[in-house]
## 1
Amino acid sequence: MTISKPKSTGQTTNQPLSTRALNRALLARQLLLSRSDLSVREAVRHLVGLQAQAPNPPYVALWARLRQFRHEELSAHLMERSMVRIALMRSTLHLVTADDCVTLRPLLQSVQERGLKGSFGKKLAELDLDALAAAGRALLEAQPLTFSELGKRLQALWPHSDATALSQAVRCRLPLVQVPPRGIWGASGQAAHTTAEAWLGRPLAEEPDLEAMLLRYLAAFGPASVKDMQVWSGLTRLREVVERLRPSLLAFRDEQGNELFDLPDAPRPDPSTPAPIRFLSEFDNMLLSYDDRSRILQDDDKHLVFTDNGIIRATLLVDGFVCGIWSVTQKRKAADLSISLFRSISEEQLNSIREEAERLFDFIAPDAETRDIHITYSRNTSL
């Protein structure tokens, strides 16, 4: 799915978009109002990648969005190198197409640099980072390594430096992809890395297009503010770029008066459009791609989803909004789904949750002989 620059419109509307209108627009763009018939590759490209700190969340994310999605479809793309896992937006690990790997990574180099400076700047202050990157490239292209292995080998060359700082500097300076079996459903393996150039057999894009990246963000997440775009990408100073795009975009206001931009032809469904129950994976991009998350998550619920140690729990959408968290535990032939709701819901919605839960079991634990669903409340609310 290619996003071309829209024709000039420059149209501004004074009527604000309600939170519910923004929610339905988001669900439509995220393939969550109804499951899509897009291919796995088309979906991953349209979504501008999937958050992938853990191996399995991208599979659940695609199951929630695509009709008839099978685990082996995504695993095959990783094995065939048509998709990769690499640090991109916000300097966090994403699963993207090979094409997006080589075009997006150069645009986000400053994000990697800023993160490195904040975490390890003092420990790397006296080092020649170009020489360090060259040494890291030689090691990683000779053999994929874990960061622990890489750090130890680099420390042999820089014995007075911190091994973790050395490996993270290479992660920042080079486009490193995680190689299978990491990321393959049902497989186990440490996170070993090599360079994107070596893995894909081609160089990074020499003239990547930042404007095109922001247009693709709007296609998958809009309408959105400049701050939203910055939070999603990790980039700063995007106002100038958006101003160049303004003549070809629509401009709206949210209920707080913030200016939002959007593609003229992007879907903006009626706010009354029904939204089905959906189980979202851990680290789902929808929860990480806005300065103002109110279109999907209430502020009072944020602490129930985002943990102090950086985990973003798997969430449950009821009527399009986050209404709970969930987890599945498996032991031998038994699978247990635990759901913690944030507020009271109707009996009809509870029944819909149970129906969708059976589909989730079919995907996550198809061989389980017993399936149990436990629904509780995070607050003093009763069924």
Note: The chain has a mean pLDDT of 93.
## 2
Amino acid sequence: MIPTVPQSSVLKWSYRAYVTLFFVYLALPLSVVCVFAFNNSLFPSLPWEGFTLAWFFGTEAPFIGVFHERSILRAIGTSAFVAVWVAGLSVAVGTCNAFLFVRHDFRGKGMLYILMLLPLIIPGVILGISILVFASSVANTLEDATGLWFDGLRPGLILVILGQFSFITTFATLVISARLQKFDQSLEEAALNLGATRWGAVRQITLPFLLPAITGAGVVAVLMSFENFNTTLMLVGSDSPLTITMFDKLKHGSTPVLNAVSLLLIILSATLGVLSLIFQRSKNEK
């Protein structure tokens, strides 16, 4: 509607300047981080000492590149492991939640929907502490009753996965629900009239329709898992994901190797986002 409203030239140029400054504000910090990943210096700051790829491929101290930094590589593997589990659980539960909230009416539906949205409102630190206290209380009770050690309820990867799953599932539910609301249920009814079972109709017709949203939700879940810090910090054990490892290294002094890791994450995020958009567009065109 805004472009159709009569505007003066001053207002048009002001709007364009605002949009330009907004995107510069978003892109400039990321650009600075990326540029200093190639600085031939021990510190990610000016002056510029020359171009180098040592912070990616270097093998000799102090220029140990990200591809030869064992702690970074181990943390990337840990984050990938956590992200795959979180994405799988979030998409599966989010799909079930979408069918529950879109297709069914029951007593307490509104309250249950609000409870699902609560993790988006609660700060990540509070959410992590709450999960840690609850899990520790359950573990202590079970250990006192059985004499066994319940390692999965102590700080570690299982709690990290559950902690991230607790709020990323909400995003997956919202994404998939928005797609499901556009579905024409008469297609399922036609399949049922032709002899298909309820599950067969959902599997052959509804789930393929939801596939772009499910894929998008999975990509979002992976990216959110990789970048999560607050909740993960409260629940992490000896195996640290990438964000925690980078934070620990930053406490001992920043080097451009962290800029190199950040650049790789930016490339990964952009690649996943573009592939997701291409996949969704191809599915929508079909």
Note: The mean pLDDT is 87.
## 3
Amino acid sequence: MKLLLALVLNAGLLLLLWHWLRPRLTEAGIGCWLLPLLGLKLLAWAVASWRPSGDSRHMQLFGNALSQQLWESPAAWLHTALGNEFHFHDWHVVFHGFSNTFFMYKVVSVLNLGGAGSLWLSGLYTSLFCFVASWELARTVRRLFPDTPTGAVLVGFLLWPSVLFWTAGLTKESVLVGSGAAVVALVLQWLYGSEKLRPWQWLGLLALAALHFEARFFFAGLLLAALAGLVAIRTGQWLGGLRHRWGQVLLLALLLAGGVYVVGQVSPVFTMNRFTSRLLTNYRELYAKSAGRPRIEYPALRPTGESLLAHTPVAIGAALVRPWPWEGGGALYLVAGLENLALLAVLLWSVGQTLRGRAGRLPFALVLVLLLYCILLAALLGLSSPNLGTLNRYRVALLPYLLWLALQHDGAARWLRRLGM
């Protein structure tokens, strides 16, 4: 029964993938890049599955246990899927709050209906999900904003080395980045497209937003809040206001301040004192675990809002450019450092083009909310993740959007279009 179901599901998925691929292969402009980028993603998936991380093996192991529960007692599995505890035979696991690790156990248990407990197949499903969602975002941008380079999205989501590495195989990042790209694509279609979203697209948007939130709720909360700000700005524009950029900036600032206040009132976890204390605790724990390795140091950091603000500029810089190539001494640190130098060059190029009046043609409101998301998440990561390896992985949630913004200016547009992007 299990084998038959797996064969049927995989045959159906292959047909869906072929149905999705066929019209896009001949699409003007970016169709020629579809197979090369898909091949690159599959190569990264094969490498990631051949040498899986401990985190991937852990998720597959517990996911297989949940799958066994699904087959033996579907009602018990449903109770597990809707809760924060897993009790089955000798397995006893209890989580508190929004655990993305426990959520991934549940995801793997569903993927196992087709994957039959194989980490290779689970990783293939998540890799293809991320690829398809990223490609659809690129197509949406090309359709809605034809004067901007689609290649900026392709580079950020499908070509940049660390993004490609961390979103291949069975990883939380593949689900996080893929669901985020899909949500952004649907929201842009809603706000800037000429056609209304159909009912099934609205249902898909809600499901993908829930998936994105569960994959890593704090990161997702920032992106969803940024998109809510974009909705507010577009609503103001539809009503005949907010034509000037400073009005959009002011509205977004008011929404940000109001949102922080409301969230703090709703949950004590997000009050300033609790937030700063928890952030400092995370920093100290990871700092201690990183002994003997390159790490970010804030000797004067204190659990106060003033101290966090004072350290924020350095934290943002550290999140984007650490490690340097000469830090660490190992090959992985060297590769990460060289990538950071490339990122720094891209960002400086973008700043230079912007100062010369060549910032690109994306709508200002969209640039504003995505840039705010990148800055806030970079500050959060830089302050709470002194371990450079952890930082390199976590910042994958913001890098695609930052690269999209940094490569949409006129100078980059010329180079990307020469490459057929």
Note: The chain has 19 helices and two strands.
